[in-house]
Amino acid sequence: MTPQPIVVLRRGDSGSAVADVCDRLLVTGDLPATWTGRSGLRDAVVFDELVEEAVKSFQQRRGLLVDGVVGRSTYSVLDGARWALGDRVLRYLPDHFLEGDDVAQLQGRLADLGFTPGKVDGIHGPATDSALRGFQAGVGLPPDGILGPETMHAFDALRRSVTGGSANALREREQLRRGGYSLSGRVVVLDPGHGGGDPGASGHGLTEADLVLDLARRIEGRLTAHGVEVVFTRTGGPGGEEADRSAFANSLDADLVLSIHTDHSATAAAHGAATFFYGQDGQDGQTGQTEERARGAVHEVASGRGGWSVIGEQFADLLLREVVARTGLTDCRSHPRNWALLRRTRMPAVRLDVGYLSHPADAAALSDPHTLDAIAEGAVVALQRLYLGDADIAETGMLKLTDLRRHLESLQAAGTRSARLTGGGPSEPE
């Protein structure tokens, strides 16, 4: 992969780094082929208004933060967007994972054929390498983990063996089902946003980094009481970049990641809570010189929702509904996003943006400890409802933690009685 720029690029900048960004925007079709801003020397290319709009267009389609600024996350996705499956040789590089649309397309094909590359995230990690080697061995090729012409030919000779849904989604649901109802023994990573020298949003006497850390500690206390092992990405200092936080969660082999933030807007009217999960359905809007190839390749991944966390979506929806019902904050809906923390974690990850510190009513609510307690209780109830699955009969916003414990105990007791009558094992999945 092309090295990422160290500096952030924005409107008014110029130079060869801006020219590199424009080259990629031309390939994706976000900059029109008639664009003349790069005529002449590459060092003279300017990040003008048209380039900014092209960056925003790309960010919007790819589920990134739409700010018109090319930082590390945007550049990583933009650089990978120029590759389609077969454009380059793919292999596992332990010290520097290859990233790109071609990797996501490879993962989608492997998943559809019954192999397990992990999350369809466009990152060629060890799970993708293992799945590729398994495919090669299955079709009689040397399992060298290199996607070259022979392996591509083998892919082209096979038709999809999975139809009517995403194999990756089925695996996610089965893994959740087999985990059982109980929260006890699970590992949850809480990620209070920002920290250290980055305070995040601020307004009406509140600072995001401090507020979300307080909220995370309230959630921790309730999860711990239910037997959950809780790990923080930070407890006061900086938590690192999103890639660092996701790598930390992966190293723990956690069951779920909950990232907590507040928001801020120059528009005083903006208010409410929202949740975000990993999803990138917006890729098939590409145009330009690779239009047909890109559309076809992306469709094979997105149509089966391989690049989509179904469990993340389910938890994001449950979490938002519980928070809104308990606090009265405006429901700003749940959204798929391709942000680094959501994409790079191997387990489901959800981000909660709970209110705008720039809005007087939201800030007043978040200043009240009772509101923070209500949000914390809603988060734990939503997590338990996620694992209850079909046994979840609760009404949103009404279930208390004590009710939750009694409901879980009754389910476990029913399973024990059923096992005694049938002479078999417990009815709850093991």
Verbal overview:
With 430 residues, this protein is of the alpha/beta class. The chain is built from 15 helices and eight strands. The chain has helices at 16-28, 49-61, 72-80, 101-112, 126-138, 149-156, 167-178, 208-225, 242-252, 291-302, 310-327, 340-344, 360-366, 369-388, 401-422, and strands at 187-192, 202-203, 206-207, 229-232, 256-263, 273-278, 331-337, 349-356. The protein has a six-stranded mixed β-sheet with strand order 4-1-5-8-6-7, sandwiched between helices. The protein has a two-stranded antiparallel sheet with strand order 2-3. The longest helix is centred in the C-terminal third of the chain and has 22 residues, at 401-422. The radius of gyration is 23 Å and the shape is flat. The model is unreliable at 160-164 and 282-305 (pLDDT under 50).
Entry keywords:
single chain, about 425 residues, alpha/beta, six-stranded mixed β-sheet, 15 helices, 8 strands, about 45% helix, about 10% strand
Helix and strand topology:
Layout: H1 16-28, H2 49-61, H3 72-80, H4 101-112, H5 126-138, H6 149-156, H7 167-178, E1 187-192, E2 202-203, E3 206-207, H8 208-225, E4 229-232, H9 242-252, E5 256-263, E6 273-278, H10 291-302, H11 310-327, E7 331-337, H12 340-344, E8 349-356, H13 360-366, H14 369-388, H15 401-422
Beta-strand content bin: 5-15%
Number of distinct helices:
15
Task: Note the gap between the termini.
Answer: 42 Å
How many strand units? 8
Along the chain, the helix and strand elements come as HHHHHHHEEEHEHEEHHEHEHHH
Write down the oligomeric state.
single chain
Class inferred from helices and paired strands:
alpha/beta
Mean pLDDT across residues: 84
Main sheet: which strands, in order across?
4-1-5-8-6-7
What is the gyration radius calculated from CA atoms? 23 Å
Helix content: 40-55%
